[in-house]
Amino acid sequence: MYLDKLLCNEGRGDTRLQDECVDCIGRKAVTPAEAEVCCMDCFGPELCWTGTNFVKTSLKELGLTVQLNHLSMCCSNPQPCAVQMRVLHTNGFHNIALSYCSCRPLPPHIQLLQWGLYPASQLVVKTCATFELLQHLHILGLATKSSTYDFYRTLKKLTDNTGLEVPTTHYKALQQMCLQWWHLLMLKRGGRGHDSSGAGGTGRGSLQYLNALSVAMDANFHLKQQLVSSHSQDLGFGTGLSYMVKREPYKAYLLSKASQGDISTCVGFSALA
User: Degrees (nearest 5) of the Cα angle 171, 173, 176?
Assistant: First the structure.
């Protein structure tokens, strides 16, 4: 049953028997369109139903253009963005069609920031990241010590895990945006955004934080903060599958080696030399 529902959600889900667009039916359209496109969220993955299977598409290919600097999404003098505008989000890389506003005196990179997109440059912007991605990467790095490179590879695999359509690299751009984002968070938490002098008036040492004392029983082996749950409270998934062995045979193997004598000299490690 669980496997069936997993496969069902990767397909058309509850609309698998629906031939007409659910959104059109909800809006009580006179002539509902055919159910062809499945949009997960504003940043994909967008899927188009061909009648037999889904194929990947994008909001740009479907004709959507996001207008910046206008809540109404309409501008009397729109200016197209770069043709290959790439947006980095928490679920991969996306080609988005954006239009800058030319009727209000705001630089393009400021318009992107107002819409929640962090530009990788200020002159000709071709790559940007959502605020959600930068915040997610920041918390993930603090909680798991995961590197930016590992996170970038995850985004790359989410975009295309087949190796058939490998996206162009944006790793250096992501690194630059992360460094700037972390610096902005430091200024924000130091209260510089509410100071009349702004970030430029930050004095030497004004962003220093007091260090907190952390006491542990044994810095090498018995850190109290690293105590793990028992087996009964933290059951493993998939034990005995793939390269993971079952718990009982593994414990039996360990007990069979309990009486084995330890190597007392360094001669036993000669194979490592």
Answer: 110
Q: How many residues does the chain have?
A: 273
First to last CA, the chain: 55
The model's pTM: 0.67
Structure tokens at 70: 């206008």
Report, as an integer, the average pLDDT of 207-221.
Answer: 58
Both tokens assigned to 86:
């790439």
pLDDT value for 123: 84
Rounded to whole angstroms, the Cα distance separating 241 from 256 reads 23
- Give Cα separations from 145 to 25, 148, 213, 226 (angstroms): 47, 9, 21, 15
For 80-89, 107-116, 219-228, 234-243, which range has the lowest pLDDT when averaged over its residues?
Answer: 219-228
Banded model confidence at residue 273, pLDDT cuts 50, 70, 90: very low
Beta carbons within 8 Å of 132's beta carbon, 6+ residues apart: 89, 90, 116
In degrees rounded to 5, what are phi and psi of residue 88?
Answer: -95, 120
Where b means 16+ CB within 10 Å and e means fewer, 141-155 reads beeeeeebeebbeeb
